[in-house]
Each structure stands twice: as structure tokens, then as C-alpha cells.
Design brief:
Helices cover 84% and strands 0% of the residues. With 221 residues, the protein is an all-alpha fold. The longest helix has 32 residues. It is globular. Bound molecules: protoporphyrin IX containing FE (HEM).
Length: 221
């Protein structure tokens, strides 16, 4: 078992399973965040946030989520280093466009930029909500709305969140179907089906996470 997990295929499998788990988390997170737009009293979003803060979720699911992220990142680094060792010289850029997409060739860089975005994002919401306290904000809803509406920085943060959403969408555009490929759905029929579903999912996620900060910036206050 341990030799399978340290083999190239085993590592790809771990990457894929942790990635698919994150795919699910992102969908749930987007649905809960959409409450920000559907109820300007904030009650709906606050109720969702309180549900997520229940001890069984906070202490049961959250460690699994952060574990999933860490495994995904560590294996991304190991696999990238392994690939660089196996192929020290880059492919000539001439023919790459035909056989692979821009996203697939830049997964490591895109993933790294998404990680920078998530680190900033955790400082904005996770840390005050779960660790240091809300400060001047009256509720979780106010904390989020304040970030996107306060002065000129509101516009800057709106732009950074839109950029984060686009980077995440590009990462998912390749990551989604490639995860299924690594767990065995590799024939041409499944590949083209999953590629389509992956693109729809990536566009849905990128559009959703783009619309929310823009909506809050322009219409919440
Ligand atoms: C419109 C954009 C977004 C908003 C308004 C938003 C809002 C929030 C809030 C309020 C929390 C704190 C929840 C709590 O601790 O109770 C949170 C946590 C988190 N967010 Fe986001 N988020 C956004 C986009 C994203 C994106 C694009 C990702 C990338 C995957 C992401 C990943 C996370 C993670 C990993 C956590 C920590 C786990 C958790 O507390 O659920 N978020 N987000």
C-alpha cells in the first residue's frame, strides 16, 4: 500500500481525490456565499455562517478541509519537482498549443496564486470570525459587506476577489476533468464529457465568486 501511494500513479490519485474534495467544498461555499446577495438584512447569510460554526462542523469537518488543502499543496509540489527532474528541458513551445491547454501547462503557477488569494482571504474573514473576534462589525454579514464597500479600499478588495475568482476558475478548468482522468475515466468519450462538465463548473464558480463582490460593492449599501 505505502509503495503504491509513493508511486507516481498513487501520488496523482491522492492529488485527484483531495482536489475533488475541494471541488465539493468550493460549491458549498459558493452556495452559502450567494445568501449575501439574496437577503440585504444579512439574516440568511448569518444563519448559514452560524450553521457552519456548529462544533460538529467546526471541529469535525474543518480539520478535514484544511488537511485536504495541505495534502493537495504538498503533492502538487512533489509531482511538479518529479516532472521537472524527469524532463529537465522544456518542450519547445511551438506545438504545445495543439496538445495541451494553457491552464494545464500552468497548473502549478495558477494553484500558487490561488493559494496567495486564500491566505489573504482567511485573514479577512476566517481569522476575525473564528479567532480574534469581529471588531467593529456587528455580524459576519457586516464584516463581509464592509470589506467590499469601505472607502477606496473597498474597490481594491473587490478587484482582488474578482482576480482570485478568475484564477480559481482557470485552475479548475483543467483540474476538474484531469482529476477524473487520474482516477480512471480516461477513454475519449468520458474525457470529452468530463471536459465539458469541468468547463461548465469552472465558469459557474468563477462567475459566482466574481458577481458576489461586485454586487456587494455596488448595491449592498
Ligand atoms: C465572494 C467571495 C468570497 C466570500 C464573500 C467568502 C466568504 C468567506 C467567509 C465569510 C469565510 C469565514 C467563514 C467562517 O469562518 O465561518 C470564508 C472562509 C473560507 N473561504 Fe471564502 N469566501 C469567498 C471566496 C472564496 C474562494 C474563491 C475560496 C477558494 C477556494 C474560498 C475559500 C475559503 C476557505 C478555505 C475558508 C476557510 C474555511 C471555512 O471557514 O469555511 N473562499 N469565506
Amino acid at each position: 500500500m505505502s509503495s503504491f501511494l509513493s508511486s507516481s500513479i498513487g501520488k496523482k490519485l491522492i492529488m485527484s481525490l483531495s482536489g475533488l474534495f475541494l471541488v465539493l467544498f468550493i460549491l458549498v461555499h459558493l452556495i452559502l456565499n450567494s445568501f449575501l446577495m439574496f437577503d440585504s438584512t444579512g439574516e440568511l447569510f448569518n444563519a448559514g455562517a452560524h450553521f457552519m460554526a456548529m462544533p460538529v462542523i467546526r471541529f469535525g469537518l474543518q480539520p478535514v478541509l484544511f488537511g485536504g488543502f495541505i495534502i493537495h499543496i504538498i503533492y502538487a509540489i512533489i509531482l511538479t519537482l518529479q516532472n521537472m527532474k524527469a524532463r529537465p528541458q522544456k518542450y519547445s513551445s511551438q506545438n504545445l498549443g495543439n496538445s495541451s491547454t494553457w491552464s494545464s501547462r500552468n497548473m502549478f503557477v495558477l494553484g500558487g496564486l490561488v493559494l496567495v488569494f486564500i491566505a489573504m482571504h482567511l485573514m479577512h474573514f476566517f481569522v476575525p470570525i473564528q479567532i480574534t473576534g469581529l471588531g467593529d462589525a456587528k455580524s459576519d454579514y457586516d464584516l463581509v459587506v464592509d470589506l467590499f464597500t469601505n472607502g477606496s479600499m473597498g474597490l481594491v478588495y473587490t478587484g482582488l476577489y474578482v482576480a482570485g475568482a478568475i484564477l480559481l476558475g482557470l485552475h479548475l478548468a483543467h483540474g476538474f476533468w484531469s482529476s477524473f482522468q487520474s482516477i480512471g475515466f480516461s477513454n475519449t468519450l468520458w474525457r470529452s464529457r468530463l471536459e465539458k462538465v469541468g468547463y461548465i463548473y469552472a465558469i459557474f464558480v468563477a462567475a459566482g465568486f466574481t458577481i458576489i463582490p461586485l454586487y456587494l460593492h455596488f448595491f449592498a449599501k
